[in-house]
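Task: fold both queries, return C-alpha cells.
Query 1:
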Amino acid sequence: MKLRKSSRVDVANSLAMDINRGEFLPGAWLKQVELAERYQCSRSEVRRTLDQLVIERLVQHVPNRGYHVYSPNIEQRRNISSIRAILECASAVDIVANSSPDSLATLRRCAAQFEHCTHHGTLLEQYEANLAFHRALLAPCSNQDMVELIFDLRSRVPSAALGQWNSHARVVKSSAEHFAMVDAIERGNAEDLAQLIGQHIHQEDNPQRHG
C-alpha cells in the first residue's frame, strides 16, 4: 500500500481527535502497526506522534510494553485543580499590580489567537494557544517560583484535549472567559480576576457541566 505524505502534526491531531471522541478508550493499548494503517503513515511517524502525545498527556508510555491512552485519576485531577485554583486566584492581585500596557497587549493577542483556533485550529493548536494564554496571564507575577509550581501542577493532569473541551461550545466559552480576564486586568479589578480564574479552572475540571 502506498503511503500518503503526512506530517507529524496531522497524525497527532487525528489521533488526539479520535481519543477525544472515544475511538480509543482510557487505558487502551495503541498498536503501532494498526495506527500506521489507520492513519496511512509510516511506523516511525507513528512513534513520533505517540511521543508527542505523551508530552501532551494524552498517551502514556510503559517501557518494554508500549503506549496506551492516558487513564486519568479523577480524584487526583480534582485535587490538583483545587490547588491550582488557590494559587492562581491568589496571584490575581500580583497580576493586576504588575501588568503593563505591553503585557496586557500580549495577553489580548493570546486571547485572540485562542479564539481564532476555536474556529480554525486543530485540537493541538487549541491546546498550545490555551497554554500560551495562561503563560501570558501569569507572566507579570513577581513570584515566578509560584508560577513554575502552577505549571508543574498543570503538567500532572491530562491536557485539555482529554476531556476539558468535550464540545465546541465549551471551547468557545473558554475563549470568552479569557477575554473577561483581560478586561478585568484592564479595569484593575483583582477581585473580579480572581473570581474569573477560579471559575475557569473549575469549569476545566468539570467539563460535564457544559453540554
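Query 1 returned. Query 2:
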Amino acid sequence: MTNNIDGKINNVLNNLLEDYSNDRTIDEIKPFDHPNRDIVIDILEKLRRIVYPGYYKNNTYKIYTVRNNISMLLEDVIYNLISQITIVLKYSPKYENAGREELEKEAERITFEFLDRIPKIREYIETDVQATFDGDPAAYNKDEIIYTYPGLYAILTSRIAHELFLLGVPLIPRIMTEHAHSLTGIDIHPGTTIGKYFFIDHGTGIVIGETTVIGDNVKIYQGVTLGALSTRGGQKLKNKKRHPTIQDNVTIYSGASILGGDTVVGKNAVIGGNAFITTSIPEGAKVSVKSQELMYNYDSSNPMHKQELENDNVWYYNI
C-alpha cells in the first residue's frame, strides 16, 4: 500500500516538474528575486507600532521606554525595508539594468526618506482618529477606535503605502494595501491621495481607485465605489486620471458609486445611498436616487398605503 502511494506521489511530482518547464509567467522560480510578503506585512505591523508608540508595545521586555522600543523597531524596519526595496526596484524600468550595489544604495536612500515622512503620517492619522470619534456616536473612546476600527486600519495602511508609492517603490505598497483589504474588506489603492480628517464608517465593500483624490473632512460609508468609468482600455489608460475627485466636507452614503476621472464632487455635497454618478456634482448639492414607492399593508382593515420618499429631508442619514 505504502509503495503504491509513494509511486503515485512520484508520478505527480514528475508531472508537475515537467509542467514547470513551459517558460510561462507562472512557471518562474526565483525565490530570491521576489519580495517576501510575510516580511512586508511584518514591516507594516512594526510601522503601526511606531505610529502608535503607546498602544502596541513589545511585551517581551519588562522595562518599557519609548526610546528603546522605537530604536529596536526602527532597526528591524530599516534592515528589512532596504532589503525588500532592493529586490523590487528591478520592476521599475528606471532600474532594470542597475547592478546590486546601485539598487542597495537607492533602496537605502528611499528607506530613510520614507522614515522622515512618518511624522507627517502621524499628523494625518491623528486627524483621522478625531474625525472617527467626532463622527461615530457608537465610539466610546479613541482607544476603541485605534484598537478595533477597520476603517482606521485601512486608512493608516493606505497612508503608509501612499508615501512609498510616491517614492517610486514598486509592488510593496500594493502588498500592504491588499493585506489591509483582506482583513477589512476595504480596498484602497496606494496611489489614492487622501486629505486630513478622513472617516470610513463600517467600511466593508469600499473600493477606492488609484487616481482618486479625496479632500479634507470626507466621510464614506460601506459599499461605496470611487472608480473608473471603464477599464476596457487596459494598459492604454495607465497614468491617466481615471477616478473621481472628492472635495472637502463631502459625505457619501452606503452603496453609492462615483465614477470617472473628470467627475468632481464639490465641497459640502451629500451623496445619498445607492446613487450612481458619472458627472460632476456642484458644491453643497444633495444627491438622491428617485425612490420606488413603498407599499405598506398592516392588516386587512388597513388598505395599501403609498409613500413617496424623494422629498424626505432625513432619509440619507439612514445606514
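Both queries returned. Flag for query 2: The first helix runs from residue 2 to 19.
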